[in-house]
TrEMBL record:
Gene3D superfamilies: alpha/beta hydrolase. GO terms for molecular function: chlorophyllase activity. It holds the Pfam family Abhydrolase_1. Residues 108-362 form the AB hydrolase-1 domain. InterPro entries: AB_hydrolase_1, AB_hydrolase_fold. PANTHER family: ALPHA/BETA-HYDROLASES SUPERFAMILY PROTEIN (PTHR46438), ALPHA_BETA-HYDROLASES SUPERFAMILY PROTEIN (PTHR46438:SF7). Coiled coil: none annotated. One of its GO terms (cellular component) is chloroplast. This is AB hydrolase-1 domain-containing protein. GO terms for biological process: chlorophyll metabolic process.
Length: 384
C-alpha cells in the first residue's frame, strides 16, 4: 500500500506505485535521511463522484443493514481463534470462513483480500456486517499475516492471483465476489481476468493499486522522473543490513502508528488493535525477506491493461484522502474514467477517507457495497 521506504505492512505500500516515495527513510546508526517527494496533482479533486452504471436500489432492505442493526466489529483475537489452515502447493495459508444468521445460498460468497502488510484481521470492522447476508471468507496471502513466508520465495502478483483462484475453486466452491484493498485489489483483478475462470461473479476494488510496487509502468512523467530513485531503493533494500535497519525502525510501535495516522482519513480508526494487526506479522520469521522480495520484484500486470476486457460487475470505492494512490493520480484518474466507458463499472468517491476505506470508514463502504451486492444476478450455486 505505501511507497515510502518503510518496512511495515500498511506503511510501505508497494502497492502504490503512482503516489511515489513520500518519506524515504534510511537508517544508519541513529541518523535518518528523509526524502519527501509529493506526486499529488495540482488539479483540484472532485468533491464527490457518484457515477453508477449498475443501478443500486436503496430499497433493497434485504441486503442493507441499518446503523442500529449493524453488528459490532469482531475482536482481533476472536478472528484469530476462528481461522483455519488450507495447504496450497505445500504452503500453509491462513483463512477465515464466517456465516451470520442468514444462510441464503442464492447469494454469492464473498472473499476479502487484504493489502500490503495487512491480513485477515484488517477486515475486523466488515466481516460481521457482511456475514448478515453472505458467507464471508478472508484470506492471508502468502507472505502475509499468519500464512507461510517461505525463505527465498520470489513473490509476484500472478502467484497471489492463482492462490485466490485456487482458494475459490477448492475451498469456497461457489460463485464468489472478490473484495480487495490496494495490492489485494490488483490480485483480485488479475484473478478475475483469467480466461479460464468461471467462478468470479463480481469485483469490489478499494483504492486499487497499479502494481506490486513502485516500478509499475504508466505513462506519467512523474514516475519516469522518479525511476533513478526507485532503482536506488531496490539497491539499498538488497543490502540486508540496510533493509533490516529500515524494517526494524518502521515497525516500532510509535513510528508505525504515526505512519498509519497519515494513511487514514478517520484518525479514530487508528487504534492499538490496528497497530498490532500490522506489527505482529512483521515480527514473524520470513517477514523481512517477503518485504524485500515484494518491493524489489516485478510490478506485475497493470489494471489498465486488464479491466477493459472485463464484463463482470465491478464496484470501485475510492478514499479521496489517499496519499499513496490519489484519485487525481494516474491510477485514480483511470478508474474515474471507467463508468463513462464501461456500463459494468460503478464508482463512488468516499470523502474524508484514506487508503484503506473498509477499516477507515466501514459505514461508508457498507452503505455503497451492500446495495450493489443485492443487485447482482443470481448464479448457480456450485463452481464447476
Amino acid at each position: 500500500m505505501v511507497v515510502a521506504v518503510c518496512a511495515s505492512p500498511l506503511v510501505f505500500l508497494p502497492s502504490s506505485p503512482f503516489a511515489a516515495s513520500r518519506n524515504l527513510k534510511k537508517l544508519c546508526s541513529n541518523t535518518i535521511i528523509s526524502l519527501n517527494i509529493g506526486l499529488q496533482s495540482s488539479s483540484s479533486k472532485p468533491s464527490c463522484i457518484t457515477i453508477s452504471s449498475i443501478k443500486c436500489s436503496a430499497s433493497s432492505t434485504s441486503a442493507i443493514v441499518s446503523k442500529e442493526e449493524e453488528p459490532l466489529p469482531l475482536e482481533v483475537n476472536e478472528i484469530k481463534t476462528m481461522c483455519k489452515t488450507w495447504v496450497w502447493r505445500g504452503y500453509n495459508i491462513n483463512y477465515l470462513s464466517y456465516q451470520g444468521r442468514n444462510n441464503d445460498t442464492s447469494r454469492p460468497s464473498l472473499l476479502l483480500v487484504h493489502g500490503f502488510g495487512a491480513s485477515v484481521t484488517h477486515w475486523r470492522r466488515n466481516i460481521a456486517t457482511l456475514a448478515q447476508n453472505y458467507r464471508v471468507y478472508a484470506i492471508d496471502l502468502l507472505g502475509f499475516g499468519a500464512s507461510d513466508k517461505p525463505e527465498g520465495f520470489a513473490y509476484n502478483m500472478e502467484t497471489w492471483a492463482q492462490l485466490i483462484l485456487d482458494f475459490v475453486n477448492e475451498v469456497i466452491q461457489r460463485p464468489t465476489v472478490l473484495v480487495g484493498n490496494s495490492v489485494g485489489s490488483l490480485a483480485c483483478v488479475i484473478a478475475a481476468a483469467d480466461p479460464s475462470q468461471t467462478s468470479i461473479q463480481g469485483l469490489v476494488l478499494l483504492n486499487c493499486a497499479g502494481g506490486m510496487n513502485n516500478k509499475a509502468i504508466v505513462d506519467d512523467w512523474r514516475i519516469k522522473l522518479l525511476s533513478p530513485l526507485l532503482w536506488l531503493v531496490d539497491f539499498l533494500l538488497n543490502q540486508k543490513s540496510i533493509a533490516s535497519a529500515i524494517f526494524n525502525r518502521v515497525k516500532q510501535r510509535e513510528n508505525l502508528k504515526n505512519i498509519l495516522l497519515s494513511v487514514y482519513g478517520n484518525k479514530e480508526s487508528v487504534d492499538e488493535d490496528l497497530v498490532d494487526i500490522i506489527r505482529t506479522p512483521a515480527d514473524a520469521e520470513g517477514a523481512l525477506d517477503a518485504f524485500v522480495s515484494i518491493v524489489t520484484g516485478p510490478p506485475g500486470p497493470n489494471p489498465v491493461q486488464l479491466i477493459p476486457k472485463m464484463t463482470l460487475p465491478i464496484l470501485v470505492l475510492w478514499g479521496d484522502q489517499d496519499p499513496f494512490t490519489p484519485i487525481d493520480g494516474p491510477v485514480g484518474r483511470y478508474f474515474s474514467s471507467l463508468p463513462s466507458q464501461k456500463p459494468n463499472v460503478s464508482l463512488f468517491l468516499l470523502e474524508g477517507v484514506g487508503h484503506c476505506p473498509h477499516d477507515d470508514r466501514p459505514d461508508l463502504v457498507h452503505e455503497k457495497l451492500l446495495p450493489w451486492l443485492s443487485n447482482l444476478p443470481v448464479a448457480d450455486n456450485v463452481v464447476t
